[in-house]
Automatic annotation (TrEMBL):
PANTHER family: ATP-BINDING CASSETTE SUB-FAMILY B MEMBER 10, MITOCHONDRIAL, ATP-DEPENDENT PERMEASE MDL1, MITOCHONDRIAL. It comes from Planococcus notacanthi. The keyword Nucleotide-binding applies. Keywords: ATP-binding, Membrane, Nucleotide-binding, Transmembrane, Transmembrane helix. This is Thiol reductant ABC exporter subunit CydC. InterPro entries: AAA+_ATPase, ABC1_TM_dom, ABC1_TM_sf, ABC_CydC/D, ABC_transporter-like_ATP-bd, ABC_transporter-like_CS, P-loop_NTPase, Type_1_exporter. The gene is cydC.
Length: 568
């Protein structure tokens, strides 16, 4: 039950609706019991008396109990469902608040299909927590205890039989099936996650699978995953039916036992025969209400496992979060002896790196593929927390700063940039919602996309744009934001060299007093950079200006000579 503490806390935020729902549920349950009990009493009384007054009163009571049961059931449904929907709202908000700071790095641990399965499916599964897990045992316990207390005035023996029946149907049988369910529910959820992963990969990789003639093989794998998930669901359904059958059988046997014990007490003179039918009908009505407990094991384990899977995501360590804002002055960034390795990996992606970025300077980070350049960028952006070392911005440790405030002051262009389904205008307005059409058009012209109308459609993930167009649109978005800290990771790698240099010149011209950090495998045009950091195997092996590095005739010089020989 510890796994559901957070869900229970969010549920009890609406304690007023939950309390009213429990109250109406009790009224509905006790009214149905009273209806059946008074029916049994009326039958017995009618056989023993001819007084019409008594019979009319009893008939009126029957109608009253029936009306009260229907009205209370409506109130129960109204308030319990309202509390459920509100709880789901609180759960989604709470979950996404905890997830948001982890989002940049969470794909390193979870695949997108599995994430989607958890974020959508598991959250939706928790809608059953109040209605099927928390609520039924509470209401049933109150109804049963009230019924047993009433029955004890007529026969202690029958009251004890009903108490034993309550323990069996409300506690013992559901507990046994919960133990059985715990062994299988995790497997079915894992199957659903696996199916979502394979379906996502199939959709995103359809073109490549078709090109390489592997579509049929992938379809067979997807069908196999679907069949396994369907079989798991079928077994779950059979298990739930078995629980319902056994619980109903126990309830029926208890009612028969009440009849047998009551008949014995009547024969022994310990119970007046007038009340036997009433007590039997009360027992039948009370145990009719245990039907939700048959489904309790399935919903309990479903809710518990869903809560565990959601908690696994938000329990992933993320960057440290503070509340302080950045100083209102040109910002200096210092990285000291920073080391970092990706989760589950022993090798260091960044190993003991120190880098100082002074306001208004231009820094290039170069090196062979896999040397740690992009990882270094992620550390500077505080997407990943450093395992060792210290990152400070504006003289303040990054742990004390609000992460969103950090990103708010940065113009960021990464290797992969996301574009949303919509238009050029909607994708540009993400950076600056207040920007006018004239500003957007001027920004597009600066990256040589002036032929793109703002109304032009952008498909999901920018599928109708070329690689170079995506990069230029991302740069336009950064230009429109207009901040003084620039972080560019291979921003023009898919653009021809002439256009790329023209874009760099425009960026440096417009942001001549800005701070630039550029990651590039292209060594051309680095003469304009204030410092060049050369990386290899996660370390900075050289740092200095272009002329300083060329004079050393060391690593950078060798890279430059190789580039010149290849493109000579």
């Amino acid at each position: 039950m510890n796994e559901l503490k957070h869900v229970l806390k969010l549920t009890l935020i609406e304690k007023k609706d939950v309390s009213i729902a429990i109250f109406f549920g009790f009224l509905a349950g006790i009214a149905s019991v009273a209806l059946m009990g008074s029916s049994g009493y009326l039958i017995s009384k009618a056989a023993l008396t001819s007084q019409m007054t008594t019979l009319v009163v009893m008939a009126a009571c029957l109608k009253l109990f029936g009306f009260a049961s229907a009205l209370s059931r409506y109130g129960e449904r109204l308030y319990s469902h309202r509390a459920t929907f509100t709880m789901l709202s609180h759960l989604r908000v709470s979950f996404f608040e905890r997830l948001t700071p982890l989002a940049p790095g969470i794909f390193g641990k979870y695949r997108s299909g599995d994430l989607l399965s958890r974020i959508v499916g598991d959250v939706e599964s928790l809608q059953n927590f109040l209605l099927r897990v928390f609520y039924p045992p509470v209401v049933l316990s109150i109804v049963f205890l009230s019924t047993i207390f009433f029955s004890s005035f007529f026969s202690i023996g029958i009251a004890l039989v009903m108490l034993i029946g309550m323990l069996l149907t409300v506690v013992i049988v559901p507990a046994l099936f919960s133990i059985r369910k715990r062994k299988t529910v995790g497997q079915v959820r894992a199957m659903r996650g696996s199916l979502a992963v394979e379906a996502t990969e199939f959709l995103y990789g359809f073109r490549d699978l078709k090109i390489h003639q592997q579509l049929g093989k992938k379809e067979q794998l997807l069908k196999k995953e679907a069949d396994q998930y369907n079989e798991g669901q079928r077994k779950e359904g059979l298990e739930e039916n078995l629980a319902q059958s056994i619980n109903s059988l126990v309830a029926l046997l208890v009612s028969f036992f009440v009849l047998g014990v009551g008949a014995y007490f009547v024969a022994a003179g310990e119970l007046e025969g007038l009340y036997l039918a009433m007590l039997v009908m009360i027992s039948i009505a009370a145990f009719e209400n245990v039907a939700p407990m048959a489904a309790f094991p399935a919903y309990f384990e479903e809710s518990r496992k869903a809560a565990v899977r959601l908690e696994e995501i938000v329990a992933v360590p993320g960057a440290a979060q503070g509340i302080e804002k950045l100083p209102d002055r040109p910002l200096e960034i210092n990285l000291k002896e920073a080391s970092f390795s990706y989760p589950g990996e022993t090798a260091l992606a960044v190993d003991g790196v120190s880098l100082q970025l002074k306001p208004g300077t231009k820094t290039a980070v170069v090196g062979p593929s896999g040397s740690g350049k992009s990882t270094l960028m992620q550390l500077l952006l505080n997407v990943f927390p450093v395992d060792q070392g210290q990152l400070s911005i504006g003289g303040k440790p990054v742990e004390t700063l609000d992460q969103e405030a950090i990103w708010q002051e940065m113009n960021i262009v990464l290797q992969e940039n996301h574009f949303f389904f919509g238009t050029i205008r909607s994708n540009l307005s993400i950076a600056n919602p207040a920007a006018s059409d004239e500003e957007m058009e001027r920004t597009l012209a600066q990256v040589q996309l002036e032929l793109f109308p703002l109304e032009m459609k952008v498909e999901e993930k920018g599928q109708n744009l070329s690689g170079g167009q995506k990069q230029r649109l991302a740069i336009a978005r950064a230009l429109l934001k207009g901040k003084s800290l620039w972080f560019l990771d291979e921003p023009v790698s898919s653009v021809d060299s002439v256009t790329g240099r023209a874009i760099y010149e425009e960026l440096f011209r417009q942001g001549h007093n800005d701070t630039f950090v550029v990651i590039s495998h292209d060594l051309v045009g680095l003469e304009k950079m204030d410092q060049i950091a050369v990386m290899e195997n996660g370390r900075i092996v050289e740092i200095g200006s272009y002329n300083e590095l060329m004079k050393k005739h060391s690593y950078f010089y060798q890279l430059k000579q190789i580039e010149n020989s290849v493109f000579a």
